[in-house]
Amino acid sequence: MDEFYIRNVGAGFLGNSPIWWQKGGSGYTQWLDDAKRFSNEEADGVIQSCLGTHQFEKWPCKKVDDAAKLTVDIQDLS
After folding, report:
1. DSSP state of 54
2. Where are the domains positioned within the chain?
3. What is the pLDDT of residues 19-35, one digit of tens each?
């Protein structure tokens, strides 16, 4: 089964990271570990239900996961 992340086009980015729909419906996240995965039907339902108020787009999890990189923020190093 294909899975999808949903991105709020209007929410933009955090730095260079896209903002994804967060697990639990509590907002958005740039972290893939915190991003909710949707079936194709679920993603289409969310997108359709929000037409006129928000613009969402779905991205295949495999495509996004394959492009993901592990990074370190210099502020976290002492």
Report:
1. -
2. 3-76
3. 999 999 778 999 999 99
